């Protein structure tokens, strides 16, 4: 049954959905990596697709920008379409000296300046963490492909342009491996509704050093990350078989 934000039919989504922020990225992923692709959602141009990768049915759908947007789509995918695993695939900024552009960052935990998880957790602190097995398989997939990977706590910011200019140095001091805008919300939704979630990002810029990738380099690193994400799904299947 359709929801206010998704017009797919029952059964249109696979049990695992890869979620980039940009709906056109979802289309790129579907066209580039999946076979026998069909479009399953186009509400508000938040495109969703289902196809197969090496014989495994996988869906991909955009989630928009920020915690409120990803929370809407994640909740409806889980509760209305029976999705069991959600993997955010995106980009992030770095603050630590040992994290560089092109690195892959896996969000084992997600701190945030948003109040959404306090709202769902009776105003208490909620430790927003990724699914351990998905994280483990993603690390193994990255190492198998010789892609540098950093695993740790990421920070999901409500503001892209943060007026608190001291934040970057504080995040560095606390060992944050990447700064993005969605993971903490995704992990909270997954916990509330009994699904599994993970975030994997490529480092597109370094907030303190000022380093950044060109458009061409961003595409290359995105493709590296996507192969890791897809291999993660296959490894997870094999481990759970």
Automatic annotation (TrEMBL):
GO annotation terms (biological process): purine nucleoside catabolic process
Domain Nucleoside phosphorylase: 17-217
InterPro entries named among the record's database cross-references: DeoD-type, Nucleoside_phosphorylase_CS, Nucleoside_phosphorylase_d, Nucleoside_phosphorylase_sf
EC number in record: 2.4.2.1
Site feature: Important for catalytic activity: 218
Keyword Glycosyltransferase among record annotations: yes
GO CC field: cytosol
Binding site for a purine D-ribonucleoside: 5, 180-182, 204-205
CDD domains found in the cross-reference section: PNP_EcPNPI-like
Catalytic residue list: 205
Gene Ontology MF terms in the entry: purine-nucleoside phosphorylase activity; uridine phosphorylase activity
Reactions performed catalytically: a purine D-ribonucleoside + phosphate = a purine nucleobase + alpha-D-ribose 1-phosphate; uridine + phosphate = alpha-D-ribose 1-phosphate + uracil; a purine 2'-deoxy-D-ribonucleoside + phosphate = a purine nucleobase + 2-deoxy-alpha-D-ribose 1-phosphate
Transmembrane in keyword set: no
Binding of phosphate, residues: 21, 25, 44, 88-91
Family under the similarity heading: Belongs to the PNP/UDP phosphorylase family.
Protein name, per record: Purine nucleoside phosphorylase DeoD-type
Organism: Vreelandella boliviensis LC1
Gene name linked to the record: deoD
